[in-house]
C-alpha cells in the first residue's frame, strides 16, 4: 500500500486510461509484484497533500487495510512553505510510522530529492536535509526501510523530469520503480531481484536550444506551470482538491490495466 502526495500518486507519468490519469512508480512496482507473486495493491496518495493532510486523510484508511508493506512519502509540499514547522510535522510523521510498525507492517520511507542543481528549488535544500535526517532517525527507531532518493544522483538529469519541473516524467517514474524494487530485494521484503523486470529507461538526446528558444521555453513554463502554482498558493487551493485516491481498495495490477 502507498500513502502520500503527487510523488506517489504518479503525477508526471501520464496515462489517460488510469484513475486520476496517471500511472507512476508505485503502480509500476505493483505491476511487477502482482505478476510475479500473490500481491495486491492500494494507493491512497493524492497530489498536493501535506504531512498533516496525509495523517488526517490517509492514516486511518491505511491502517484499516492492514498492509504487509506500506510506503510513505509526504513532506515535499511542506518543505516548499518556509513557515512550516518541520520539527512539529515530523513528530506527527513519526507517529504515523509507529502506528504501522506496531500493527505489523513493513514500512518504507523516502528521503527528499537533492535540489542542489535546481535553479528553482535549490533554496529548499537545507530544509530537505533536515527532513532527511528526521526520516533516517524515524527509520532507525521503528525499523523502517529507507529508499534514499537524496543519494540517487541519476535523477539530476533533466530528461527524467516533466515539463512542470516539479514532478518526474514517465522515464523518471520507471527509474524510481526499478530503484524501489531493488531496495525491497536488498531488505528481503520480496524474494529475488525484480528490479530487472522494469527495463532501464532509454533517455532521448539532450536538446540543444538557441537563446531565443530557451527564452520561449521559460515563458511557456511560467505561463503554464508557475503562474497556476502561485495562484493556488495565494488562494489556499490544491491541485488535488477535487481528486480521490486512485486505488482505495486492494487491486491486482497488470501493465495493460485500463
From TrEMBL:
UniProt-recorded Gene Ontology molecular function terms: hydrolase activity
InterPro entries according to UniProt: GDSL_Rv0518-like, SGNH_hydro, SGNH_hydro_sf
Hydrolase listed as a keyword: yes
Domain of life: Bacteria
Keyword Signal in annotation: no
Residue ranges of domain SGNH hydrolase-type esterase in the record: 2-175
CDD domains linked: SGNH_hydrolase_like_1 (cd01832)
Protein name, UniProt field: SGNH/GDSL hydrolase family protein
Organism name: Glutamicibacter mishrai
Amino acid at each position: 500500500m502507498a500513502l502520500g502526495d503527487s510523488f506517489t500518486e504518479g503525477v508526471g507519468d501520464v496515462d489517460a486510461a488510469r484513475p486520476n490519469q496517471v500511472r507512476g512508480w508505485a503502480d509500476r512496482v505493483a505491476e511487477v509484484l502482482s505478476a510475479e507473486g500473490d500481491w495486491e495493491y492500494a494507493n491512497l496518495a493524492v497530489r498536493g497533500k501535506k504531512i498533516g493532510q496525509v495523517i488526517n486523510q490517509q492514516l486511518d484508511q491505511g491502517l484499516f487495510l492492514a498492509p504487509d508493506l506500506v510506503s510513505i512519502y509526504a513532506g515535499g509540499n511542506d518543505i516548499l512553505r518556509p513557515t512550516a514547522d518541520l520539527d512539529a510535522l515530523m513528530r506527527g510523521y513519526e507517529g504515523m510510522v509507529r502506528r504501522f510498525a506496531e500493527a505489523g507492517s513493513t514500512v518504507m520511507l523516502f528521503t527528499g530529492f537533492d535540489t542542489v542543481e535546481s535553479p528553482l528549488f535549490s533554496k529548499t535544500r537545507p530544509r530537505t536535509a533536515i527532513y532527511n535526517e528526521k526520516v533516517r532517525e524515524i527509520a532507525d527507531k521503528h525499523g523502517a526501510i529507507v529508499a534514499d532518493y537524496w543519494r540517487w544522483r541519476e535523477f539530476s538529469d533533466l530528461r527524467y523530469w516533466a515539463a512542470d519541473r516539479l514532478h518526474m516524467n514517465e522515464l523518471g517514474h520507471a527509474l524510481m520503480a526499478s530503484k524501489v524494487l531493488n531496495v525491497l530485494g536488498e531488505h528481503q521484503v520480496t524474494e529475488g531481484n525484480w528490479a530487472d523486470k522494469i527495463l532501464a529507461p532509454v533517455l532521448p538526446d539532450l536538446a540543444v536550444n538557441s537563446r531565443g528558444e530557451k527564452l520561449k521555453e521559460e515563458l511557456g513554463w511560467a505561463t503554464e506551470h508557475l503562474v497556476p502554482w502561485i495562484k493556488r498558493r495565494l488562494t489556499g487551493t490544491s491541485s488535488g482538491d477535487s481528486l480521490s485516491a486512485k486505488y482505495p481498495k486492494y487491486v491486482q495490477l497488470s501493465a495493460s490495466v485500463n
